[in-house]
Specification:
220 residues; globular; mainly beta; 8% helix; six-stranded antiparallel β-barrel
């Protein structure tokens, strides 16, 4: 898995989506569809749209590499005298134009917990409110036993989602997947914002340790 830091372009998208999150409140509707069903929200999407499922995944075996839903990922914030981190779980779906761009056709969410120097400072759930950006890179090469979806739909790329946390704060969730056959420059893991705090350093997935990994499945 590639462990490069996030590129300038993705961070720019997060900044733009922060403004959307602050301005839109609850104006974008979502459905109550469970992300674990693999179904998608209602939309007027045409054949030019990508139907995508995203997951923070769990690796149940590294030999052979086997994955399922229900993992955990971490990101941290700079420019603080203490180490600020956020722990996230989650999954969901969205429908997006193949060229990228915003969409209200999004479902899902997960749990969050924040820390300061390793001490918990809050926890709860979050709900996806919309899609700010989706960038498809390529379909993955074979080699993973996938208990989430169709292994032929596994994809590399990145997405930025607008989210609302259970304590009332708004923010964003950035997801990057750098799986088999990925192009250079894609981060593996998550970044996030929560209120004004920018957790923009994705923690790298350590070899042999079950954390900081993601997946996309793009319906074909």
């Amino acid at each position: 898995m590639n462990t490069r830091t996030l590129g300038v372009r993705l961070i720019g998208v997060v900044l733009a989506s922060l403004a959307l999150a602050c301005d839109s409140g609850d104006s974008v509707s979502t459905t109550t569809t469970s992300p674990t069903t693999g179904t998608f929200p209602n939309s007027s999407a045409s054949a030019t749209s990508d139907h995508v499922r995203w997951d923070i995944i769990s690796v149940t075996s590294f030999a052979p590499l086997t994955v399922e839903a229900g993992g955990v990922a971490f990101a941290s914030a700079r420019n603080s005298p203490t180490l600020l981190t956020i722990k996230l779980t989650g999954s969901g779906t969205f429908v997006a134009p193949t060229s990228g761009g915003v969409s209200g056709a999004a479902t899902g969410g997960g749990t969050w917990e924040t820390f300061s120097d390793g001490v918990s400072t809050g926890s709860g759930t979050y709900t996806v409110k919309g899609l700010a950006s989706w960038q498809f890179a390529n379909f993955q090469a074979p080699g993973i036993i996938d208990h989430i979806g169709d292994t032929n739909e596994r994809s590399n790329g990145n997405a930025v989602l607008r989210v609302e946390y259970s304590d009332g704060t708004l923010g964003t969730l950035g997801i990057g997947c750098h799986g088999p056959g990925a192009l250079d420059g894609i981060v593996e893991g998550v970044i996030a914002t929560k209120g004004f705090v920018t957790y923009w350093d994705a923690e790298a997935p350590p070899p042999g340790v079950d954390k900081n990994r993601t997946s996309f499945h793009v319906e074909q």
